[in-house]
Amino acid sequence: MSNDLIAKTCALKNEDAKSDNVLMGSLKNLIAFDEVSEDDKKVAAEAGITLYTYDQLIAKGKEEE
């Protein structure tokens, strides 16, 4: 996901949680291709989303080889 969509996606999840027909309730993780700002991390945490960078996932995969 590009970083400009992180806050928008989190806002959509928060709005969705207030509706009668919850569609984004299962969204738990987002993967960003670039480094993530502290503001984006905070917004994601408030929405109940864990935010990972692509580099974090690559490093984790190499650790488990």
Top keywords for this entry?
single chain; 65 residues; alpha+beta; 3 helices; 2 strands; elongated
Walk me through what this model shows:
This protein is α+β, with helices and mostly antiparallel strands. The chain has one domain. 48% of the residues lie in helices and 12% in strands. The chain is built from three helices and two strands. It has helices at 6-17, 38-46, 54-63; strands at 29-32, 50-53. The chain has a two-stranded parallel sheet with strand order 1-2. The longest helix is centred in the first third of the chain and has 12 residues, at 6-17. It is elongated. The mean pLDDT is 91.
Question: Quick summary of this structure?
Answer:
This protein is of the alpha+beta class.
